[in-house]
Structures are given as structure tokens and as C-alpha cells.
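Long-time lurker. I teach an intro course on protein structure, and each term I like to show students one example going from raw sequence to a predicted 3D structure in C-alpha cell notation. This year I'd like something fresh instead of my usual example. Would anyone be willing to generate the C-alpha cells for the chain below so I can use it in lecture? Attribution to the forum is fine with me.
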Amino acid sequence: MPLNNERLISASSGEDQGSDVESSSERCDSMTSTSDLDCSRESFTSDCSSKHCTPSSSPPKTLTLDEVMESARDLSNLSFAHEIIVNRSFHLEPDSPPQGSLWKIVRENVHKAFWDILESELNDDPPEYGQAIRLLEEIREILLSFLNPGANRMRTQIMEVLDMDLIRQQVDNDAVDIHGLASYIITTMGKMCAPVRDEEIKKLQDSTNNIVTMFREIFRVLDLMKADMVNFTIDNLRPVLQRQSVEYERATFQSILEKTPGALDHTTAWIKSSLEELLSATIPTEQTNSQGKGQRALPGPFQVLNAAFLHILTWDYNKSPLPETWMTDETRLREIQWQLRRCQAVNEVLLIVCSTVGGPIQGLSSLSDRLKRMTSVLLDGMHSPHFKMDEALEGVSAQICCELNKSLTERNYPTLTPALQATLTGQICSITQKDNPIRTLVEDRVQQYFMTLICDPKPQAKLEQVPVGLTAIKPELALIGAKFISLVNYNKTVYGPFYADIIRKLMFSSSPPATNPSQDSTKDSITTS
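-- Reply from a regular --
Happy to contribute to a lecture. Here you go:
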């Protein structure tokens, strides 16, 4: 039936998504408050565990189609529940195809053909009511679906008025009142709808001339009411899910892991990469083994995990997919990454301006704010693959030089010389190079800031403590830091047992966990140091 089975899509505010997980992430304080020194090695080397806290994976096997579909449903449910939990603005609305798209054109033509056929049938002599009766039956089922279990009186009334057997008898005797039935349906919809739909109901009540048009509008408003009902259910379900979120997500992921071999391959590779990076940077201890060689001290489990979390912040989505345990947060992580890159670029530009021009603009917070806003606007969208960074930075340089000259003139300073403007433009445009010293400095200090937040048991107290050189983007950095650390803490709470199992096997087990063939050298990378 047109307009009745359209797919629902999510619509939410991107700015609010990351910060909405803060309430859920508070549960992980007890986990993150333990430092590497306090973490017991035995907790990662011991084989004793319980089903609740230690994940397990099934041995490799051939999956049937039913098992694949069941795992896909579990993943879909997990993603949907996670979105409801972490994003307070998450809601559903009827899908609206893009204007002028082939999908929209085809759908409109199919719907028009359907309603034209209905109109032709009702205009026959005698009228043909078969299709109209099927529409009434569908409307009745939709109205009944809106009722609460205890609404017996309303349910009985709907069943009596929209009694299909009685209506068919009336059709046979040419006594059916289609307009009267439509009027009852609209009145009933007015009793059930949310206040926001009152205007739509009034329009329906005023358009009673053409029965086909009325039916079409009834189904359109019913679609809106279905979306309202779904969103109402989501709002009521959210507190329940938030109370059970950790247990539910962990159990659902465990179910996926049991059915799908290799469901932690990317996660294992991600943690292994961090472990190998830490091992390569570890200085050998003074102790020697039986061959007289210095031994490298193994990094602590939380040190490995924190380093892995930091890698998520700069993840290259073009090279490899996210770890499986982060897939439900991919949209939020991408947005955080885009915001952070733009903040870094803005900070790099401001540092270059201050170091190049120097004294005449020192201490002018209003000028710094103007340059910051202007640069941020001109670099908006820099994450897009079609964004031309070189051209954008040239535009930024021209605008900055113009603004600086205006400020210098107002305060009776000489304007920038052409040579100085050229130097400033060249330095600003050079931040596209990965080995640019200003870019390297800013990126290193941003990494230092986020590592401090990840490692601290109470990161909220450190959000405003930005490293030297990042003061210009302190408000933006604190906001991004709050979003990211909330995601990290919640992720750590949900998937901590899985991470502990992987790290234990990578660091201390006689055999590495089942992963991709390229990861089979895990044991050697740890024991041969």
C-alpha cells in the first residue's frame, strides 16, 4: 500500500551526539581509575574466569545463511539500541527521497497510478468498492496498532464501525457510506494523534469533497502518526536501555561473537598494533636474560589500551575499517575527527600569524578572535574529498593580511610589507605538508592533551588544562575532548572484558588469539625482545 510501508530513517543533531553518552560513561569510573601500576598482572595471566566477564569465541566454522542473517539482525539491533542510548536527539521520521531523484519520480508515478485506479473504480456505475474496502481494512489495523493494551473500549468501537463483513454486506446492498466511514476515521485519528498533528487533522476535516484525495491524505497523516508513535516508544525505552545498556550491548556482542568467526579480527589487529608500537619504543631494562641480553619491560595492559584508544582519534578510514567494537560509533568518531582537524588547522594558522607579525598584534584578543572565526569559516568542510585545501589556505592568507593591515592602520602601525605578506602566505600554505614544524608541534600537543584525558580517572577536571600553544582553541578542544572521552569511557565499560582477553593472550598466553594470518607473529613480537 503506498505511503504505508515507507522506510524510516534516523534524523538527529550531530553536535549533540557525542556528548550524550556522558551519563552512561560514568559507570566506567571504577574501571578507568585503576592505573597501570595498580593493575594486577595475574588478572591478565589467569585462566579462571566467569561467563559474565570473560568473552569467548567459537572455533572457526562454516556459517549457514540463517546464521549470517541472525548475526546481521543482532548487529542491527545492537547499533539501533546504542544509538538510542548515546544520542538523546535520535528519532525517526518518514523517509523523503531527494527532490528530483529517480526514486522520488518513480514512487510518485506509482502512487499516482494507484490512486487513479481507485478513483476510476469508485466512479464506475455501479461503483467498485473492492480496493476501497482493502484500504479501510488497512486503516483499521493501523488505528488498532496505536492503542495501548488496556484501551478496550476504543478497540471495540473501531472494530464495530470498521467491521469489514458488515461493510461488504452494505456494498452488496448499495448502502455503504464511504464518506461517513472516512469522517469517523479522521475523528478517531484526532483522538489518537500527538498535539503537533492537530493542524493536519483539521485539514483532513476540511477536505471532504474528493474521497480519493481524502484517503490519500489520511494515509499521509497516518505515516506521520506512526513515526510519532515510534519516537514516543523510543523516548520511553531510552531510560530502560540506559540502565541496562552495558549488559545488553555486551551480551549482544557476545552473541555475535559466538556465531561469527573472526568477529574480533580488526579489534585484535588494532590492539596488537598499539602493543607493538609500545614495545618498539620501550628501552631495555638493566636485567639480563640467560644469554646476557637486556630484556624489554612489557607495557602495562592499560597502557596498551590507552594507546589504542588514542589511535582511534586519528584513524585512517581509507586504509582499514574501524575495530568491530567501535563500529556503532563510527559516525560520531568521524565527526570528532573532522572537528579536531579543523581546530588544529586554525591553531596552526594563528601560531604562524603571531610568530610572523609579532609585537604589534600581541595581546589583542579581539583581533585573535576575529582571525580565528574567519579562518574557521573558510576551512569549514575541509574533511570533504572535494575540498581544495591549498586554495582555501590562500584565501585564508589573503583575508588575514587584509585584517592585519586594517588593525595595524587603526593603531598607527605600519602595514605589512609585500615581502612579509608573501612570507606569511607561504608559511600558512605550508601546513598542508606533514613534516611542517608548526603542524607537527600542534599535532603532538593535541595528542598529549587527549592521552592525558584518556589516562586520567577524572578527565572532566582536565578538559580546560590544554598544553601550551593550544590556548587559542581551548573552548573547542574542551568540547571535543568531552565528546571523545565519553565515547572512550563507555566503550571501555562495555567491551572491557573483550579487550582484557585479547591483551592477556597477546602479552602472556603461549598462543595468540585467533586472528588474521598476518597476526600470527604476535608471540614472537613480544617474547623475542
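Some talking points for your students: The longest strand covers residues 284-288. Residues 1-53, 510-529 have pLDDT under 50 and may be disordered.
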